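Might I ask for a little of your time on a matter of protein folding? Here, with my thanks, is the record as I have it:
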Amino acid sequence: MAKIQENKQNGITGKESTSNKMNCGRVKALLVNIFLFLRYYVDILIDNIFGFFNDSKRKPIKNNSNPILHKSATSLARKIRKGELKSEEVVQAYIDRIKEVNPVLNSLVDSRYDDALKEARRIDEEIASGCITEADFQRKPFLGLPFTTKESTAVKGLSFSFGILKRKGRKASYDADYVKLMKNSGAICLGVTNIPQLNLWQETHNPLFGITNNPYNTTRNVGGSCGGEASLLAAGGTPLSIGTDVGGSTRIPAFMCGVFGHKPTSGLISTKGIIFQNGNEEESMVNAGPLTKYSEDLMSVLKVLVGPENSMKLKLDQHVDVKKIKICYVSDPRDLFVSPFRPEMKKIFSRAIDHFKEIHDESPESVEFEGTKYTGQLWKYWMTQEDGFNFRKDVTDRQGEVNPVIETLKYFTTRDNYTFSTIMNLINELLPTANGDWARSETEKLKHEILHSEISGRKPTTKKMNCEKVKAVLLSIFLFLRYYFDLLIDYIFGYFNDKKRTPIKNNSNPILHKSATSLAQKIRKGELKSEEVVQAYIDRIKEVNPILNALVDSRYEDALQEAKQIDKEIESGIITDSDFQQKPFLGVPFTTKESSAVKGLSFTFGIFRRKGKKASFDADYVALMKNAGAICLGVTNIPQLNLWQETHNPLFGITNNPYNTTRNVGGSSGGEASLLAAGGTPISVGTDIGGSVRIPAFMCGVFGHKPTSGLIPTKGITFRLGNEGETMVNTGPLTKYADDLISVLKVLVGPENTKKLKLDQSVDVETIKIKYILDPKDLFVSPFRTEMKTILARAINHLRETVNDNPESVEFEGTKYTVKLWKYWMTQESGANFYRDITDRQEEVNPYIETIKHFTVGGDYTLSTIINFLNNLLPNPKGDWARSETEKLRNEMLEKLGENGVLLFPSAPFPASYHHAAYLRPWNFNLFSLWNVLKFPVTQVPMGLSESGLPLGIQVVAAPYQDRLCFAVAKELERAFGGYVPPYQTE
């Protein structure tokens, strides 16, 4: 991969030296052979292990000596019609057989024996009386003959639970359409048979009825989902079985239990009464079909199921000369998801081919179709297209929607309502689904090849290796493993931390629930005293800070003195309207981070060499806030030297999340976001070089904005003197309410830049062009979980109804390279030298020595700083490539956004993780740092809470100088979704 990237950077697009060229096809062949070899022996090992534990548990079923049970359904129907057998006699024989074998097989789960015998007697009486005409017999080809069907199909009065606990005890109040057809043909239903949970697995097992056994060997699988049918049929418990099939559900059990099974041409048999199907669904893969012991019964049953018209369409009464049929065969579809074929399976297949060679005029032809390799991807895609299908909802009887992550964890800890197969299906739902255009195209192509090619003359083909496809498979495997690695991280951290959670106190003071803008207005009008407001926030900090550890240095007495002075000046009337205009936050408290200079307060950056150091001046942006009348209460915690996505340093410790104190608050403005969300400050001002405002804003459920770059002075932010030139560093507000963002930003950028940004210009949300990226496809970032995808989709769907033009999905190749681009541009920051900065620029540390010290005797630095040391040792991207890629990406985005567009972008793969979990997934901040690289304005917007009570949100991005568009969309989303949700109860 490194070489490929180097080639891209050097402009090499595909030209390779012939002598050094790798033969991709040979590599693939070798890898495939190795894989198949290993897979073959893994399968054998699996069988040996399972056999070791199970072979001795095999239970034989009783022999079957009743001659009735050995006749085909068609011949039994003829004998009943002619009076050679009584229907009651036949029905009783099958009931007796079921009672013999079912205790061993567990096939039938609900019966109607008494009713079946009554129906049989009535039929016998009608036949004996001669009141049934020949026409009646034609319409009722199975008169007096018993049948069974699966429990997921409605049979009036019988169990209809689909094997899910939410439907336990449920009985069908009607007959499924195909059950009616069977009954109208004179057949008598004996009962319903076992299925997998919700029909979706290749073994028949559910928590309501248990597992069904194979009559050939009771330690073996019967298949699914018609496993109960096939098992009972093979054991002689029914002459006719009717199943349904969405992915082999008739044929898998038929194979495993040695009977015939047929999936008919689609669309000919009504699906009403098959699980949730109403029969009015558009094109579906679901089909009903017969399972029989004798091939002659297949056609007889199918004619009943499809009806007279479709029987004619299928030409079922037309004679077929087998010798005239063209036989083609696929001996191996080469689907790497399927186990290698064993000799016995190859042999039986060859015997069938050899037989047809002997009896046919034309010899069977071997054919291959490329598309058969993609069955797994194609089937999964088409399952998502089934009308109304939602596995997570269906498995609750459509009463809610399960969280697959939670259910998986529950299954492996406390067990749950679902079988392991259902957990597998839930996991499968989380994996990427094939692109719709590709799936439809590939399906159509495969159908066309099979239907319209000169199949009989088509020769086997050998395809060259498609490296992109191999890459796609490897990528899918990587994402699958990465997803569960992340889940494992959360499970382990949760196991040790969940019980340590400490709730913060409720907040009943109404002052603390008002926006900063409204507080300023009330102070200005004399409706509130500044002292009253400042005291309320000081009291709140004293309540929550012992739990959160957010504020690390305070100036309460000075703040109260300033507030009293302001109150006096307002009361005396010496403050004019012009003064109020110049001081929009007069008397309103604020806080900022400890790495920004606030005169007289701690200014250590979280490093030991600066322990006890106080600022002797105010940072420029702090001076702007004070000049706007705001009163600083104190400074808040940060990561060491601001460079980590969690707030923790050896001087002040770790800051906790008010929504769950075992969770991360983000960094580097984590102390600000934590205090703000807990009601400890009405205005927070942070700084942002790689997401430092927005990561904490996301994790703590508040608004955060990184403005257009270059508009706010940086002097007083850590070592900055304000004359460093172009930088990714930016100052920005964090607020609980969207209205406050624009008010604070106007103070920070000043009057001239306010005009440049058109912050006083109204924005009509309806006219904004909405673009969105669902997944930037950055492999350094964890896979997105469902709740994060859902919240972004909800925002898109809401804006689709709000704006004039439909939101547009966009993709940019360059978003994959964020980690490289950000690292490069960090090296371009004026005076940047992490090894020197971490010592307060007194010397330069040796990263190797400090790393060894950290893991042996300890040291002055956090693990996050050690990780930063190691990251700095890695090679930097080439400057030309990084600058070119940045410019290219910037131009592509500018072209899409224009002056009236915003981009909706994901904030994170999942909500706030546990403390220190970021060490194991250090690059998830790429979703935020991208916008520092491009210097675009971006707002973090809170979008409510997850099921576990943690904040959710998205980012809204605009082109430079279009900050007001971010604010307009943020306000609209706040209106629609509620915005900030307090982490405590309000009274």
In short: The domain at 510-977 is CATH 3.90.1300.10 (Amidase signature (AS) enzymes).
